[in-house]
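BUG: 3D viewer hangs when loading the predicted structure for this chain

Environment: internal workstation, default settings.
Expected: structure renders.
Actual: progress bar stalls at 90%.

Input used:
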Amino acid sequence: MLEATPLTEGWVLHHEGAALPAVVPGCVHTDLLAAGVIPDPFLGRAEAEVAWVGRREWVYETELRAGAGPEQSDLVFEGLDTAAEIRLDGRLLGRTRNMHRSYRFDVTGLAGRLSVRFASAYTEAEAVRGRLGERPAAYAEPYPYLRKMACSFGWDWGPTLVTAGIWRPVRLEHWSTARLARVRPLVTVHGGGGVVELRVDVERTRVEAGLSVEATVGGVRVRAGVDGTSGTVRLEVPDVRLWWPRGYGEQPLYDVELTLLHGDEVLDGWRRRVGFRDVVLDTSADAHGTGFTLVVNGERLFARGVNWIPDDVFPSRVTRERYRTRLRQAADAGVDLVRVWGGGIYESAEFYDACDELGLLVWQDFPFACAAYPEEQPLRGEVEAEARENVVRLMPHPSLVLWNGNNENLWGFRDWGWEPGLAGESWGEGYYLGVLPRVVAELDPTRPYTAGSPWSGSWEHHPNDPAHGTHHSWEVWNRTDYADYLRDVPRFVAEFGWQAPPAYATLRRALPGEELAPDSPGMLHHQKADDGNGKLARGLARRFALPDGDFDRWHYLTQVVQARAVAAGIEHWRSHWPVCAGTVVWQLNDCWPVTSWAAIDGDGREKPLYHELRRLYADRLLTLQPRPRGLVLALVNQAAGVWSGRVRLRRMSVDGTVLGEEEVAFRAAGRAVGEVPVARELVPDGAKEFLVADAGGLRAVRFPVADRDIPYPRPEFDVAVAPGGVTVTAHTLVRDLLLQADRLHPDARADRGLVTLLPGERVTIGVRGWDAVADTDAVRAALYCVQSVR
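Structure tokens produced before the viewer hung:
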């Protein structure tokens, strides 16, 4: 039987003549940080102090002992970051230049000092650029010339911390006769049954040995022979339970076990979990253009999505528990789709395992983002090798429903001035429209592929045409007001978002001792977007009087605007289902403490946007929307059953007076949107009025003018503190009340975000991680609302 031994002990990292203890898996930065050589680059402006790390060569070493008995011993690296030379007692085993794939070296009978020497990623990338020529990119760093996590070179939300190291596990494998080199599971559904077809490749030491494979799943067992170095086992499982996205059904998973045999001798084994489900991407043309709708088990979905970036700029620090925590946060917010963005990595198995269990659909980008990528060697061969390995590695996961060729590169070629400058040079089109769809079609025909995001489906339309395929909506954040989201109804919004700073406690930890201000040195360093603070200020000025000199007001209001901006988009686009078939918010998470578009900040704290997503992505949503014929109440019903009842509509004055009222019956079919016209006499007129709609415990509120023009009353409310929560009772209108629980204690978390109270209404905000004391003054200091910060 194949024996695998982790090779994690005894590693050292050489630095300035010293052998520092090294953690494997890990990276140079984390080892230097643990040894006290560098400061924490997440704090203050220390990122700049450690820039030298990415420019140096680094050497890891350990002792390798020879195995006794087996015919072959292999040294297996699951991930090397990135340009490495591996030697054993001075003997060259091989060289690598791809972070996104694994490597195997024959070390049979060998022992001695194992050395892994990493060249600077800059050195390697710049050498490739010198051979292949300059290519345009969104950033000046040389990330297109190396198969490495692009965002380690910095992004508009991330630090420039160019890593090196043994970032995924390394092990010794000892085996005889044969081993399983690759298992490719094709999982399909036919009628009420499921089929698992296992395509098996083996590596042999003895050609003459007779081999067979035996597989089991769902109580079915099948044995088949191996012809040379390949074999196929087909298992038909009757009456399977289907795997569904969260909100549509359960997520049953089936254990698949495959054994490689020589007679009755077990040589190797392979075990995974699979789920039975069918997935189709409907890109049919219709009266509105070209659709982009995911269909799972015959059910057409409005995808409630978030974009995922690496959860740490040092990915080896992301544990199974951290993956599960972050993805549980996504699921608890109503998310049912996570897009793994193309400037990051193919995530570890723990990520996809958690998505399988939570019912989170995964849209997986191939790692290409915001640049023209050369298609010549040495890159072309690396791209195909990594694609082949990772397509097969991720195939067992039912959560994986879509392969995507790249992020924004097709759009960049057409709109960002690349085309003239390239003058016919390769830029990646051959990957997205050639290599990658061919690999997916050959290896994983059970899943759809799309060439890029955004992408209209062909060059017949603009790559980012909202009427065709996927659309990225960035004009609003960059240049206009978030009300402009209502101008278009894209077929699928794969990226859009609005910035806000992280939680107060996150800033206090990341910027110790600094007097916080929007333009203080640390705040500016932790704002990586081009003119980010300027865009925040302009977005704020369209809605509020600018809070000059008051950081707390600025901090609260920018978070309010972020939540409202995202709400404006999602409410509008969801109300236009099925023309629009999904929204994928940029972004769920951060990789360090930074002002960004994230709903969860770099310390894992939820911003108000996160709690707003819980409302926006719930199965049922009320929203007041303008239509050509007038204002309507849209009742978005993503649940299977009919939603019916009566809605109460109130036209109110900001002083609490009810100016008009009506109760109307409504009905929204399952997986559909119903509409109730708002009577003309209930439409608010002027700065002093607003409209409230209540139905089924849900509420929609519409103010017709910007907050700066509304004569809000001075907020009056009572506060009561009890273990586990805070109760607020309003005596006036209180708009967008927020308890910033982390101001009470860094570990405190509130269970809700922004809430608007009418006079006489009460809300209880649950708080965990805080031992409540009857200190209402402290609680009041942590409570903010629009009126209190005007």
